[in-house]
Amino acid sequence: APSPALQGRHVLVTAGGTREPLDPVRFLGNRSSGRQGTALAAAVAARGAQVTLVHAHVEQAVLDTLPGTVRVLEAGTAVDMERVVRQEARDADVVVMAAAVADMRPASVSATKLKKSLPQPEDGKPAGLTTVELVENPDILAGLVSDPPRPGQLLVGFAAETGDSHQDALAHGTAKARRKGAHLLAVNVVGESLGFGDVPNAVVVLDHQGHEVTRARGTKAQVAEALVDLVVQCLPAGGR
Ligand code: C5P
């Protein structure tokens, strides 16, 4: 059912895992399925918001679950995603960063396929796939916090954490919530068959000080509904 607080609001959601190219056929990627972000985009659209989904790698079958009212844009790498998100966020009341954005990318992208072994070049340096030099990607969410494209917008992040115990993983999430400074950070403790892919999800939502706001558990659609409820509560009254 529509939520009055979301009527006419613009919500930007990111989903999926970025793929950072090494050469024309290889990339560094991650295990994000994009299902949670896609479920969020669908849930918030069903409540009456105008939704834009910016996605990195997400299977077509997952994207096909979106209602036709969601505007869908692709951004395959972290650098692409930063550009598209900063552009689109200028018009967004809420930004939910559910994408798994690679922290690092290969320092250079080979124009031709890298070879396992090449004749030793004269400088003696290996020319094949023995080492990959990485450089840091922009932190898109941190950039939205420090330099908001639209004043007053609500910023929501996700963090998949692992640890020796649930408590340990949650402690990483608490530190990240403080460091990133988003209004809300949904921490997903990976493991126990929770988290990635077509499985139930469980999140603990923290505020920017790392304090627990709420917990949600269930299918990705159920977790999405709980997060949309929270977004509705956190939106400043008044609309656009
Ligand atoms: O990868 P990490 O756990 O730091 O991700 C936490 C949040 O930060 C997520 O919402 C993710 O979308 C965002 N992020 C980002 N830019 C990055 C890395 C992560 O916006 N380079």
Give a verbal description of the structure.
Helix content is 27%, strand content 24%. It is of the alpha/beta class and 240 residues long. The protein has one domain: CoaB-like (Rossmann fold). The protein has an eight-stranded mixed β-sheet, sandwiched between helices. The protein has a two-stranded antiparallel sheet with strand order 2-3. The protein has a two-stranded antiparallel sheet with strand order 7-8. Helix 1 (35-46) crosses helix 6. The model has no long low-confidence stretch (mean pLDDT 92). The structure holds cytidine-5'-monophosphate (C5P). Cytidine-5'-monophosphate binds at residues 78, 97, 99, 101, 103, 137-141, 157-159, 180. Residues 6-233 form the DNA/pantothenate metabolism flavoprotein C-terminal domain. Residues 11-240 are annotated as: Phosphopantothenate--cysteine ligase. It catalyses: (R)-4'-phosphopantothenate + L-cysteine + CTP = N-[(R)-4-phosphopantothenoyl]-L-cysteine + CMP + diphosphate + H(+); N-[(R)-4-phosphopantothenoyl]-L-cysteine + H(+) = (R)-4'-phosphopantetheine + CO2.
Strand and helix layout:
Layout: E1 10-15, E2 20-21, E3 27-28, H1 35-46, E4 50-55, H2 60-63, E5 71-74, H3 78-89, E6 94-97, E7 104-106, E8 134-136, H4 140-146, E9 154-161, H5 166-180, E10 184-189, E11 201-207, E12 212-218, H6 220-234
Helix pairs in contact: 1-6
The structure holds cytidine-5'-monophosphate.
Cytidine-5'-monophosphate is lined by residues 78, 97, 99, 101, 103, 137-141, 157-159, 180.
Region (Phosphopantothenate--cysteine ligase): 11-240
Catalytic activity: (R)-4'-phosphopantothenate + L-cysteine + CTP = N-[(R)-4-phosphopantothenoyl]-L-cysteine + CMP + diphosphate + H(+); N-[(R)-4-phosphopantothenoyl]-L-cysteine + H(+) = (R)-4'-phosphopantetheine + CO2
Function: Catalyzes two sequential steps in the biosynthesis of coenzyme A. In the first step cysteine is conjugated to 4'-phosphopantothenate to form 4-phosphopantothenoylcysteine. In the second step the latter compound is decarboxylated to form 4'-phosphopantotheine.
